[in-house]
Please model this.
Amino acid sequence: MQLALLPEPPVRLAGYDIAASYRAAQTEARIGGDLYAVHDSPWGLRVLIGDVRGKGMGAVSTVALLLGAFREAAEDVPTLEALGARLDRRLTREAPGLGEELEIEGFTTAVLAEFAHGGELVRLLNFGHPGPYLVAGGHVRELDAEVPNLPLGMSGFGQEVSPHQEFAFPPGSSLLLVTDGVTESRNPQGVFFDPVLGLEGMSCSSAKAAVNSLLTRVDAWTGGVSTDDRAVLAVAH
Model:
C-alpha cells in the first residue's frame, strides 16, 4: 500500500535532484497520514507535502484522495493559489465518505512548492504546515509563512487565502520539506528537535544526502524513538 500511494519520486525531474523518505511511527504500519508528491507542470516543478489529521484507514483514504487530486490539478491550473483551492474543494466535497471523524473534524496541513523552470526561484504556499528548510552554503533557514493559511478542508471558516511567497533558490541549494514528525521529535529530556540548529553544517551535495543527513540527526536526537509518522522530501538545485 505504501509503494502504491507513495512511490519513490524520480531521482531527477525538470532539472532538479529529488529524494524522499517516509517512516511510519507504528512498527506494524508502513503508511499513515503523511503524504508527498512531485509533478513537472507547464509552470514549473510542483511539490506537495502534507499531514492528514487522524490515523487509520480514513487517513489513508484521504492521502489517496489528495494525491490523486494533486496529480490531476497540478497539470491544469496556473497558480499555487488555484491548486490549493482545488485540493481544498476536493477534500471538502469527499469528506462525508471518509468516515465520521474526518467528516466532522477532517483537515490536512500542507505546503505547496513550485520551482521555476530554468530559474533560481521557489514559490511557497503554506496551509498550516511546518515551513520548509533552505540549506545553502552549510547554513539553514526556515522559510516559514508570513501569514499561514488554514489547513486544507477548513475553507468553510471563511478566511481568505494569502498569496504565495517567493524565495531565491540558487544552484547548490537544497529545500527540505518535512512533516511534524520531524519538528516535534523530542530527545529523552523532552526537548524538541530544532532543524535550524540541528542541520547547521550539513551536506546538501544531493537531495538523497540531505534526506539521509536529516534523518540521521533526528535519530541521534531522539535515540531512535519515534512517536509520529515522519515524511521528508528534498529538492536540490
